[in-house]
Design goal:
The chain has 216 residues and is mainly α. It contains 8 helices and no strands. The longest helix has 17 residues, at 11-27.
């Protein structure tokens, strides 16, 4: 208030106005990130991504206090995370896969993903408890991006990686796209580890990058 305005307003009203302005300023401050409940996180590189997937309810801990960042992830778990990302759309628990019982937690996710061409099986099975590989994740994310009609035009040469010849033919284009979009980087400057088992920390990073870089 100007001095002239202050002369027209009581001291009590001025104090209330100042208190309101202070409260508004406090509310506009960015929220301090909540502390993660996990006691087994030791590497800086995955802290932001694990916080992201936890706060967005894409991934949870293996217990109330552990995240198990270095543990492998199953195929059923990964598709369930995509299903959460999609908002858990209506889906039946039935699929054509003989190894996906309708009463399992991952059944609706696999049913939705299979119906929309996001996942495929082999010989009538999906192998939900099998450990998912990095090239499988690239292929699933690639199909999911196509399903969402996101731009999937980027790709990159993978010849700089010594193990690029280990990429399965069906996954090669997906790995080119995933690497170009920085979803899947090398485990070292020269090794892509396409058939390596993806860790929970790696998947957290992939999902955060997908949400921020592809689904933005």
């Amino acid at each position: 208030l100007t001095k002239a305005q202050q002369a027209l307003v009581s001291k009590e009203a001025q104090d209330k106005l100042a208190a309101c302005e202070a409260r508004i300023a406090e509310l506009e401050k960015p929220e301090k990130p909540a502390d993660l409940p996990f006691t087994d996180l030791t590497q800086d590189w995955y802290m932001d991504s694990i916080r992201y997937v936890y706060e967005h309810e894409l991934m949870y801990g293996t217990t109330d206090t552990t995240f198990a960042p270095d543990a492998a992830l199953t195929r059923g778990m990964f598709v369930t995370m995509l299903y959460r990302m999609e908002g858990k759309p209506e889906a039946t628990g039935n699929t054509s896969f003989t190894d996906v019982p309708a009463n399992m937690y991952y059944a609706p996710a696999i049913a939705w993903a299979s119906a929309n061409g996001v996942v495929y099986g082999s010989n009538g099975k999906y192998d939900p408890d099998g450990k998912i590989t990095r090239e499988q994740i690239a292929a699933i994310l690639h199909r999911y991006a196509k399903y969402k009609k996101y731009d999937v035009s980027k790709d990159t040469m993978l010849s700089a990686f010594e193990d690029s010849d280990k990429i399965s033919n069906w996954a090669y284009a997906s790995m080119q796209w995933a690497n170009a979009e920085k979803l899947i980087n090398g485990r070292s400057a020269s090794m892509l580890a396409p058939q390596g088992k993806a860790t929970r920390a790696e998947v957290a990073q992939m999902l955060m990058n997908f949400c921020n870089n592809i689904a933005k």
